[in-house]
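To: structure subgroup
Subject: Chain for Friday's discussion

All,

I'm putting the inputs and outputs inline so they're searchable in the archive.
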Amino acid sequence: MSECRKVKGEGKDCCKENEYQRTQMQKEMIIEKLKEHGGRITKQRLMLLDIILENECSSCKEIFYKASKIDRKIGTATVYRMINALEDIGAISRKNMYRVAYSSECAMEDACTVVLDDATTYHLSAKMWNKVVQEGLNACGFAKNQKLVSITFKTCSRVLARDSGQL
């Protein structure tokens, strides 16, 4: 598989079926782990799990905004309890919710999707993502003989407001 797949005018991954199958397997494994640890599998928990697996949410607040669009009765406490339960079974690490760290040796495909204003879409492998950022840092004079270790993202408050319908 190539390091970068370009799909002109298409904002979605062309291999959506593989993504769905992988997400479905992850979901089933997480549900089993939750059950093993005495967790109840409610409709709200299933919805939250879908949101977490299908989106690149960077905070509990962002997960809550997406969930409240689907179920207006969901509370923030439900989201935090679910995140804690997922952390307890090792499905996620809240410490890494903002962190995207791919070394130049990472072989993950489709680690990053970049969409340009003309709808040109690039699907970058972890290696290519690392290369793009490293070369950008070098070209802008930020990195001088230094290697990229990790990048920390925070969701823009305007994006959160827009996604929650407040903008």
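Points worth raising on Friday:
DSSP finds six helices and five strands in the chain.
The helical segments are 16-36, 43-54, 60-70, 76-88, 126-139, 157-163.

D.
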